[in-house]
Design a protein that fits this description.
The protein is of the alpha+beta class and 1161 residues long. Among the domains are: 255 residues, 3-Layer(aba) Sandwich (Kinesin); 124 residues, Methane Monooxygenase Hydroxylase, Chain G, domain 1 (Up-down Bundle), CATH 1.20.58; 51 residues, no CATH class; 203 residues, Pleckstrin-homology domain (PH domain)/Phosphotyrosine-binding domain (PTB) (PH-domain like). The chain is built from 31 helices and 33 strands. It has an 8-stranded mixed beta sheet with strand order 25-24-23-22-28-27-26-29, with helices on one face. The chain has a 7-stranded mixed beta sheet with strand order 3-4-18-5-14-8-9, with helices on both faces. Strands 30-31-33-32 form a 4-stranded mixed beta sheet, with no helix packed on it. Strand 6 and strand 7 form a beta hairpin. Helix 9 runs antiparallel to helix 12.
C-alpha cells in the first residue's frame, strides 16, 4: 500500500511498498481530502461541540460566508441557497466525488447523489431523493444537480446518451409550462414533480416516469402583485418569430393581454427569448413532433387570448340579467386557432345547461358568471395541457425494454408557503409538506434505531415533535378538514365558504392546532389578528392563516358542461383529446371527484411509493428574502431550522454516539498512531481498532464496539484523534524523507558500482575479441592453402580417368558405324530389285484401265442419243395435243404462272432473309411488293408465334417457374421501385445457402420439413434502436423462418397466413417491412424490418407463396413513408437521402417512439 504525505506544491508524494521507498507524481483528481481535513467550521453537525441552536446557526453562517453551502447531519445534506454561481459543479468535481465514500470528501450534494447511485447499482436498492424546503430555497436547482451528476457518472453509448439527454431535457419543458416568478423565487415550481429514473442491472438509465401534483392553475388568470404568470407566455411573446406570432394571432407587447401582470413582466437576468429557443430545442430532443409543438403553442395562444374577452350586461324582458361579448374579434381569432364554430363557443359563454335525469334546463349567465366561465375554461385548458405534456414526455422517456429495473426517485415539490393571503392552494401545498415532514421524521428515527439495534448499541429515546396530529386534522376521513370540505361541496342546498367555515368551527373547535374566532373556544374571541372569515392552523413550520374565500369553488373545480362539449366539438386534435367528457356518447351525470380528494389520493400514493425506497434527504434553506448573495438572515434561517426539525435530527444522530465508522476505515485512517498496527495489521479490523484505542488510553466510556462499526460518543475524542494523526503524519513524513534520501544515495552508489563493472567487462571483452580475430585470420589462410592443394590433386586424377573413358568410347563408336554402313548397303541392293517389279506391274494395270474406259464412253454416247430423240418426240406429241387449249386461256395462264413464280421467288428469298430464332429479335425483312402487305404482316406474326413456341419447348419446368416469377416481379415493381432495373438481369435461384448440402446447417435442414422456396441471409433491423443483425431467411410453402446465421438456431417461425402486407420504399435501398395480422401469436412484438440486396426476389416469392397457400393476393405498398406496428406503438418509417456510413446499406435511426428515419443514398 501507499502512505501519502503532501510535501510540495506540485503534489509530489512518497510511498512505502514492501520495504522500498517510491516517489511519484499524484494527479490532482487523486488527492483525497477528508471531511475532517482543512474544513471550515464543522462539516458534519453531528460533530458540533457544544451543540446548541446558536452554535448550529453560527456553523452554518461561517461555512456560508466561505462559500461552503453544504453541511451534513449524518447522511442528511443541508443546502443553503447562495443566490449566485459557484465553481463547485465542474466536470472535475464530478470526477472527484465519483465512487468515493460519503464522508471521504467535504460535504457536497454530489456525495449524496453518488452514494444513492452506488447503492442502487451495487446493492440493488431502490432509492429516492427527497428535496424539501421553502419556496426559493433552491429545491429545483438541487434536483437538476442530482440528475446531472447521475447522468455524468453512469454508462456511455449512443442509446444511453439519448436516454440521458431526454431525461435532462424534460426539465426545461416542464419549467417553462409549470414554473413562474414569485415574490420569493424567480423560478418557483408551481407544481409538484416526482421523477422515477429507471436503470438496468449495469446502472445505465433506461428511461423514466414523471408524476405531477397540483399545478397552480389559478395563476393563469390572476397573479399577486409583483409576480408573473407561467414562463411560457412571456417566452412565446419574446422569442417567437414574427411569422409564428402572426400564425398564432398574437402581438409581441405584454400589455395587450389581461392575463399577464405588467408590473413584473421583465425579470433581471432572465432572457425569455433565449429560453424559448431552449424550450423548443428541448421538446425536439424529448421527442415532440413539429405538428405537436405547433398544436401546443396554439393552445397557449388561445389561453392567452381568452383573457381579452370582455362581457357587457344586458337585460331581458323577463327581468333576468344576461351577458354579451363586447368585442367578438378576439372570440373569432380564438375559434380560428382552435378550429371551433364561433356560435357554439359564444353560446357556451352566455348559457349554462343543467341536466337532471331526463330533464334539461338552460339558463343565461350574468356578467360575473360569464367571467367565471371564461376563467374556468382558461384554467382547465392550461391545466389539461400541462397534464398532456407530462404524459407525452412519459411516453417518450419510458423504458423500452421489459427487463427488471432499478429505480431512483427524485422528489422536487413546492415548499412550505406562508403568504399574506393564503388560500386553497397554500392549504394543499402545506398539507403535502406536513406529510413529507412526517415521513422524514419516521424514516430518520427508524433508520437510526435499526442501525443501533443491528450493531447491538443501546438506544436512547429522543423527544421530538410528531406532526401526525396535524396530518390527522387535515386528512381524517370523517372529521378532517378535507373530508368536511368535500362533504360541504356535495351537500344539497346553498353552499358557501361561510357555511364551510361554520362547519369547521363546530367540528374542529377543540383541536389544539386549529384556531378560529367563530369557534366554540373562547381563546380566540378577542384575537384581532384573526379575521372572522379565516381560520388558522399551527403547522410544524409555524402558524398559517387561511382565508376561506374560494375554498369551495376551487375544491369543486367545476367547468360548465356547455364549455366541455364546445371544446370537444373543435377540429383541433389536441383540444378535442383534452375534453373527453364533452363527447355526448360518453357523457356521465356522475359528479367528478373534488380537487382536494384527488390530491389527497395522489399524496397517499406518493408516500406509499417513498416508503418502498431507501430515502436520501436534501434540506434546502433560504438565507434571506431579498434573493441576494452574501446575506445570511439569522432570524429567517433560525425559523427554518426549527420547523424543519434539524436540531432534533442532530440530537437523534448524537443520541448514543456522535460519530460512527466501519472498523476497516477507522483502522486505515488511525493505524499509524499505534506501533502494533503500523504499518500492517495482519488480524481482524475490529481487533486492530481495540489494540489501537487501548494503546492510546482513550476512556472506555467514550466509545463502544458495534458488530461492524466503532461508535465514538464525544466529538472531542474524534478531534483529539485527528490532532494525533496530524502530528504523527508529520513525523512519518520526516521519516519517509530520511529513508528516501538514504535510498537515493545508496541507489546512486550501486549505479556507479554497476557502471564500473560494466565498463571493465566491456574492455576485457574488446581485447579478447581482438586476439581471437587474429588467430582466426591465420587459421583461415592455412586452411585455404591445404584445401587448394587437395583440390588440384583430385582434379588431375579426374582428368586422367576421363581421358581413358573417352578413348574406349571413340573406338566403340567407329566400329558400330562401320557395321551400320555395311547393313545399309545390303538393304539398298534388295530394295532396287523390288522397285523394278512394281513399276512393270503398274504400267500393265494402267493399260487395262484405259481400254475399259474407252469402251464405256462409246456405250454412253449411244444411250444419250436415243434419250434425246425420244424426248423430242414426246414434246412434239404434247404440243400438238394442248395447242388448242393454250390459245383459249393464254392470259389467265400467264397471270397465274407469273403470280405463282413471284410467290415462289418471294418465299425462297424470305427463307434466306429470315431473322434469328430469338423471341426478342425485332427485325423483319422488308416486303418486295405492295400486294403482299397483308401476307407479309401475317407471315411475320405466324413466324414470331412459331419462334416463341420453339423457344418455349426448350424450357424445363424449373425454368418456366423462374420466368413466371420474373413476370410477377415486373407487374409488382416495374416503374415503381428504383431497385427493380438492377434485378432484371439477375436469375432467381431461391436456395442461395444450399441448406440441404451445407453441413453447417444440417440441424436447421432437419427442423424444416417442407420444401424450401427461398434461403438467403438478410439483415434484421432492431425495433428499439435501428441496429442490424444478420439472420437466415427461410421461406417454405407454409411458413417463413428466421434463424441465427452462426448457429443455425431457429429464432422465429411465422405462418404465411399471418402476413397481411409488405411495404418498401421507392428508392434503390433493400429495406422492406413485413406486416403481421393483429392479434396473431407472431405479432406479439410487432412487424419485422429487413434489408437485403435480393429484395425483389424475396417479396416476389413471398407474394406467390401466399397466393398459392390462401388464394389471396397480399398488398405490396411502395411509398417513402409507411407505418409499422412495434409492440403497442404505431411507428412511422421515413426514408431520407443522405451520406452513407456503411456503403450502400441504409442507416436506420430511432428518433423517438413514433419515428424511425432511414437514410438511403
Amino acid at each position: 500500500m501507499y502512505l501519502l504525505a503532501p510535501f510540495t506544491e506540485d503534489r509530489e508524494v512518497f510511498g512505502v511498498t514492501h520495504g522500498f521507498i517510491h516517489k511519484r507524481k499524484m494527479p490532482k483528481s487523486e488527492v483525497k481530502t477528508s471531511l475532517l481535513d482543512n474544513m471550515i467550521g464543522v462539516g458534519d453537525s453531528v460533530l458540533l461541540e457544544p451543540l446548541t441552536e446558536d452554535t448550529f446557526l453560527e456553523n452554518l453562517k461561517n461555512r456560508f460566508d466561505h462559500s461552503e453551502i453544504y453541511t451534513y447531519i449524518g447522511s442528511v445534506v443541508i443546502s443553503v441557497n447562495p443566490y449566485r454561481h459557484l465553481p463547485i459543479y465542474t466536470p472535475e468535481k464530478v470526477e472527484e466525488y465519483r465512487n468515493r465514500n460519503f464522508y471521504e470528501l467535504s460535504p457536497h450534494i454530489y456525495a449524496l447523489a453518488d452514494e444513492a447511485y452506488r447503492s442502487l447499482r451495487d446493492q440493488d436498492k431502490d432509492q429516492c431523493i427527497l428535496i424539501t424546503g421553502e419556496s426559493g430555497a433552491g429545491k429545483t436547482e438541487a434536483s437538476k444537480l442530482v440528475m446531472s451528476y447521475v447522468a455524468a457518472v453512469c454508462g456511455k453509448g449512443a442509446e444511453v446518451n439519448q436516454v440521458k439527454e431526454q431525461l435532462l431535457q424534460s426539465n426545461p419543458v416542464l419549467e417553462a409550462f409549470g414554473n413562474a416568478k414569485t415574490m420569493r423565487n424567480d423560478n418557483s415550481s408551481r407544481f409538484g414533480k416526482y421523477m422515477d429514473i429507471e436503470f438496468d442491472f449495469k446502472g445505465d438509465p433506461l428511461g423514466g416516469v414523471i408524476s405531477n401534483y397540483l399545478l397552480e392553475k389559478s395563476r393563469v388568470v390572476k397573479q399577486p402583485r409583483g409576480e408573473r404568470n407561467f414562463h411560457i407566455f412571456y417566452q412565446l411573446l419574446s422569442g417567437g418569430s414574427e411569422d409564428l406570432l402572426k400564425q398564432l394571432k398574437l402581438e409581441r407587447e405584454f400589455n395587450q393581454y389581461n392575463y399577464l401582470g405588467l408590473d413584473s413582466a421583465k425579470v433581471n437576468g432572465v432572457d425569455d427569448a433565449a429560453n424559448f429557443r431552449t424550450v423548443k430545442n428541448a421538446m425536439q430532443i424529448v421527442g415532440f413532433m413539429d405538428d405537436e409543438v405547433e398544436l401546443v403553442l396554439e393552445v397557449v395562444a388561445a389561453v392567452l387570448k381568452l383573457g381579452n374577452i370582455e362581457f357587457k350586461p344586458e337585460s331581458r324582458v323577463n327581468g333576468l340579467d344576461e351577458s354579451r361579448i363586447q368585442d367578438k374579434n378576439e372570440l373569432k381569432e380564438i375559434c380560428e386557432l382552435l378550429g371551433q364554430d364561433q356560435a357554439v363557443l359564444e353560446r357556451a359563454f352566455s348559457f349554462r345547461t343543467v341536466e337532471a335525469k331526463q330533464e334539461k334546463v338552460s339558463t343565461t349567465l350574468n356578467v360575473a358568471q360569464a367571467y367565471y366561465a371564461r376563467d374556468a375554461l382558461a384554467k382547465n385548458l392550461y391545466n389539461r395541457l400541462f397534464t398532456w405534456l407530462v404524459n407525452r414526455i412519459n411516453e417518450s422517456i419510458k423504458a423500452q425494454s421489459k427487463v427488471r429495473k432499478k429505480v431512483m426517485g427524485v422528489l422536487d415539490i413546492y415548499g412550505f408557503e406562508i403568504f399574506e393571503n393564503n388560500s386553497f392552494e397554500q392549504f394543499i401545498i402545506n398539507y403535502c409538506n406536513e406529510k413529507l415532514q412526517q415521513i422524514f421524521i419516521e424514516l430518520t428515527l427508524k433508520e437510526e434505531q435499526e442501525e443501533y439495534i443491528k450493531e447491538g448499541i443501546e438506544w436512547t429515546h429522543i423527544e421530538y415533535f410528531n406532526n401526525a396530529i396535524i396530518c390527522e386534522l387535515i386528512e381524517n376521513n370523517t372529521n378532517g378538514i378535507l373530508a368536511m370540505l368535500d362533504e360541504e361541496c356535495l351537500r344539497p342546498g346553498t353552499v358557501t365558504d361561510e357555511t364551510f367555515l361554520e362547519k369547521l368551527n363546530q367540528v374542529c373547535a377543540v383541536h389544539e392546532r386549529f384556531e378560529s374566532r367563530m369557534s366554540k373556544s373562547s381563546r380566540f374571541l378577542n384575537d384581532t389578528t384573526l379575521p372572522h372569515n379565516c381560520f388558522r392552523i399551527q403547522h410544524y413550520a409555524g402558524k398559517v392563516m387561511y382565508h376561506v374565500e374560494g375554498f369551495v369553488d376551487k375544491n369543486n373545480d367545476l367547468l360548465y358542461r356547455d364549455l366541455s362539449q364546445a371544446m370537444w366539438k373543435t377540429n383541433h386534435v389536441l383540444v378535442k383529446s383534452l375534453f373527453p367528457e364533452g363527447n355526448p356518447a360518453k357523457m356521465s351525470l356522475k359528479r367528478p371527484p373534488t380537487a382536494g380528494s384527488q390530491f389527497k389520493a395522489s399524496v397517499a400514493t406518493l408516500m406509499k411509493n417513498l416508503q418502498t425506497k431507501n430515502p436520501n434527504y436534501i434540506r434546502c434553506i433560504k438565507p434571506n428574502d431579498q434573493k441576494a448573495p452574501h446575506i445570511f438572515a439569522e432570524a429567517l434561517v433560525r425559523h427554518q431550522v426549527r420547523y424543519l426539525g434539524l436540531m432534533e435530527n442532530v440530537r437523534v444522530r448524537r443520541a448514543g454516539y456522535a460519530f460512527k465508522q466501519p472498523y476497516e476505515s477507522c483502522l486505515e485512517r488511525y493505524k499509524m498512531l499505534c506501533s502494533q498496527t503500523w504499518p500492517h495489521w495482519r488480524q481482524g479490523s475490529r481487533d486492530g481498532v481495540k489494540v489501537l484505542l487501548t494503546e492510546l488510553q482513550i476512556p472506555p466510556e467514550e466509545f463502544s464496539y458495534g458488530r461492524s462499526k466503532i461508535f465514538i460518543r464525544n466529538p472531542r475524542t474524534l478531534f483529539e484523534l485527528e490532532d494525533l494523526r496530524k502530528r504523527r503524519l508529520e513525523d512519518l513524513a520526516t521519516l519517509i524523507q530520511k529513508i528516501y534520501r538514504g535510498w537515493k544515495c545508496r541507489t546512486n552508489f550501486l549505479l556507479m558500482k554497476k557502471s564500473q563493472i560494466i565498463i571493465s567487462a566491456w574492455t576485457k571483452r574488446h581485447f579478447q575479441r581482438k586476439k581471437y580475430l587474429q588467430l582466426k585470420s591465420v587459421t583461415l589462410i592455412i586452411q585455404s592453402y591445404i584445401r587448394g592443394w587437395k583440390a588440384r590433386k583430385l582434379l588431375r586424377e579426374l582428368k586422367h580417368q576421363k581421358r581413358c573413358e573417352e578413348s574406349a568410347t571413340t573406338i566403340a563408336a567407329y566400329w558400330r558405324g562401320f557395321q551400320a554402313r555395311m547393313e545399309v548397303r545390303r538393304l539398298k541392293e534388295a530394295a532396287m530389285h523390288k522397285h523394278a517389279i512394281a513399276v512393270i506391274w503398274a504400267y500393265w494395270l494402267g493399260y487395262e484401265a484405259r481400254r475399259e474406259l474407252k469402251r464405256l464412253k462409246e456405250e454412253a454416247r449411244r444411250k444419250h442419243a436415243v434419250a434425246v430423240i425420244w424426248a423430242y418426240w414426246l414434246g412434239l406429241k404434247v404440243r400438238r395435243e394442248y395447242r388448242k387449249f393454250f390459245r383459249a386461256n393464254a392470259g389467265k395462264k400467264i397471270y397465274e404462272f407469273t403470280i405463282q413464280r413471284i410467290m415462289q421467288k418471294y418465299f425462297l428469298e424470305m427463307k434466306k432473309k429470315l431473322p434469328s430464332m430469338s423471341p426478342t429479335e425485332k427485325t423483319w425483312p422488308p416486303r418486295p411488293y405492295f400486294f403482299l402487305d397483308d401476307t407479309h404482316t401475317e407471315l411475320k406474326r405466324i413466324f414470331h408465334l412459331w419462334r416463341c413456341k420453339k423457344y418455349r419447348d426448350q424450357f424445363t419446368e424449373q425454368k418456366k417457374a423462374i420466368f413466371e416469377e420474373k413476370l410477377e416481379a415486373s407487374e409488382l415493381f416495374k416503374d415503381k421501385k428504383a431497385l427493380y432495373t438492377n434485378s432484371v438481369q439477375q436469375p432467381f435461384q431461391g436456395d442461395y445457402l444450399e441448406i440441404s448440402k451445407n453441413p453447417k446447417y444440417q440441424k436447421l435442414n432437419g427442423a424444416v420439413e417442407e420444401k424450401i422456396v427461398l434461403a438467403d441471409v438478410v439483415n434484421k433491423i432492431n425495433r428499439a434502436n435501428g441496429k442490424v443483425a444478420p439472420r437466415i431467411f427461410l421461406l417454405t410453402q407454409s411458413n417463413f423462418i428466421l434463424a441465427d446465421q452462426k448457429s443455425g438456431q431457429i429464432k422465429s417461425t411465422i405462418p404465411v397466413m399471418d402476413i397481411t402486407s409488405v411495404s418498401v420504399s421507392k428508392q434503390t435501398d433493400g429495406l422492406f417491412a413485413v406486416h403481421l395480422k393483429e392479434g396473431s401469436t407472431a405479432a406479439a412484438k410487432g412487424d419485422f424490418l429487413f434489408t437485403s440486396d435480393r429484395l425483389i426476389e424475396i417479396i416476389t416469392k413471398l407474394y406467390r407463396t401466399i397466393f398459392f397457400k390462401t388464394n389471396q393476393k397480399i398488398n405490396v405498398e411502395i411509398n417513402n413513408e409507411f407505418l409499422v406496428q412495434f409492440n403497442q406503438d404505431k411507428v412511422c418509417v421515413k426514408f431520407i437521402q443522405g451520406a452513407q456510413k456503411n456503403g450502400n446499406l441504409p442507416t436506420c435511426k430511432r428518433k423517438n417512439n413514433r419515428l424511425l428515419e432511414v437514410t438511403v443514398p
